[in-house]
Amino acid sequence: LGRRLRNILPSFESAGIDAVVFAMNADLYDAAISVATKLRKAGQKVDVVLENKKTKWVFKHADRIKSKYVVIVAPDEYSNGEVSVKDLSCGEQNAVKIEDLGEWAAGTI
């Protein structure tokens, strides 16, 4: 039965996801949706995690679906108008101003 289900259920590997947006807590879910919307408007394919998950799970999930970036909406950064963006190809993590996400997604930052 397990093998048959594997062929029926969709695989999200190589789904062409550019970024996984993750809210660190439930208070930031609206902010995460707003961030995802900005990225989508800039042409990014985005997966949003609105669950009480550990950060480690989110990075494993992003790796499984071959996402290029993880965008973390955390309380301190968000209060400064920023999100943390981790490039999964090189491991580099940077703060990006929320107002600049469109430009970042378009590759101009």
Summarize the structure.
The chain has 109 residues and is an alpha/beta fold. The chain is 37% helix and 23% strand. The protein is built from five helices and five strands, in the order αβαβαβαββα.
Number of strand elements: 5
> What sequence of helices (H) and strands (E) makes up the elements?
HEHEHEHEEH
Overall shape:
globular
Strand order of the largest sheet: 2-1-3-4-5
Helix residue percentage: 25-40%
Largest beta-sheet characterization: 5 strands, mixed
Q: How many helical elements?
A: 5
Assembly form of the protein: single chain
Secondary structure class reads alpha/beta
Q: Please, what is the average pLDDT?
A: 88
Span between termini: 49 Å
- SS strand fraction: 15-25%
Unreliable runs: none
C-alpha Rg (nearest Å): 15 Å
Could you please describe the fold and organization of this structure?
With 109 residues, the protein is of the alpha/beta class. 37% of the residues lie in helices and 23% in strands. It has 5 helices and 5 strands, in the order H-E-H-E-H-E-H-E-E-H. The protein has helices at residues 2-8, 29-41, 55-64, 75-79, 101-105, and strands at residues 19-23, 46-49, 69-73, 82-87, 93-97. Strands 2-1-3-4-5 form a 5-stranded mixed β-sheet, with helices on both faces. A hairpin with a 5-residue loop joins strand 4 and strand 5. The longest helix has 13 residues, at 29-41. The chain is globular, with a radius of gyration of 15 Å. The chain starts with a helix and ends with a helix.
